[in-house]
Amino acid sequence: MSGTDESHPPGSPKDLFHRGLITKLFPSNNMGLVRTESGREVPFSFQLVIVSGEATRPQDLKEGQEVGYDLGWTSRGLRVTRIKTYPQSPSGESGPNLEGQGGQSQDLPSQDLPHKDPK
Known about the structure:
Elements: E1 18-26, E2 31-35, E3 41-45, E4 50-53, E5 66-74, E6 77-85
Parallel strand pairs: 4-6
Antiparallel strand pairs: 1-2, 1-5, 2-3, 5-6
């Protein structure tokens, strides 16, 4: 691994959480969904998730909010066990929008690779 951490976009918090997006909140059922980097939606329960960062409780979360998350296995399958929220940037966005990217960053600069002749 190199000395620079290239897994985080410039200006984003550097921590060990996976990055995702809150896609749905169901307050009446005390449940929500986080979209992972790969596009999978993983549920969480308000009673069982640990919330840290800018938000202090699940009711402070908002749909479309970028979060850090951690996963765990329960008797009902894969669940989000921890959510970390980040401060909003001055422009009102919390970071890069993960929606529709399928886990691939599209803001990376192009790299000049040596041309290989197929012959």
